[in-house]
Amino acid sequence: MEITLIILSIVFSILSGFSKAICDLSEEGKLFMFDKDLNLFFWRKSYSWKNKWKLSENREPIIENGKYVERFWGSSRWFVSFTDAWHLFGLIERVGFIVTYVSIGILIMYSNWYWLMLLNYPLFALIFHLFYNSKILRKW
How many CA atoms lie within 13 A of 44 on its CB side? Predict the structure, then answer.
């Protein structure tokens, strides 16, 4: 059980750092596009609102009764994570943190691996820094 919890905490800490890098690069418009046909409205936060709201023929959001009309039911609320990368990877980051620190909490209850908690956040920050500043995800 200890090994499983240690692996979970490390893997999800890495996943959280990677997801945070995607979020920040998406917000800054610096996320590398692997293919020109990739959905720009999904990967760039500044354009992603077009995936949430129903658009008119001239690509303006439709407003009814003083409110924007959702593109599909829940697109601006419950299912917003599926409309753009920023929300999706933000959700993955938060779930990763939850799994990481719940795993560490359980580990602390049953063993002497409490020091692992001190290493997971620096691991998150290291992974974030490596991917945020690397040319793997960043626009040239």
Answer: 13
* pLDDT tens profile 117-139: 788 899 999 999 999 988 777 76
- 99 and 119 in one domain? yes
Token digits of residue 134: 């690397």
Express the helix, strand and coil content of the chain in percent, nearest 5 each: 60, 5, 35
Q: Check: pTM over 0.85? Answer yes or no.
A: no
| DSSP result, 15-72 | HHHHHHHHHHHHHHT-BPPSSTTS-HHHH-TTTGGGGTB-B-TTSPBPEETTEEPBSS
Lowest mean pLDDT among 33-42, 49-58, 90-99, 114-123: 33-42
Structural domain span for residue 74 = 48-81
d(C-alpha 69, C-alpha 35), whole Å:
30
- Number of domains within the chain: 2
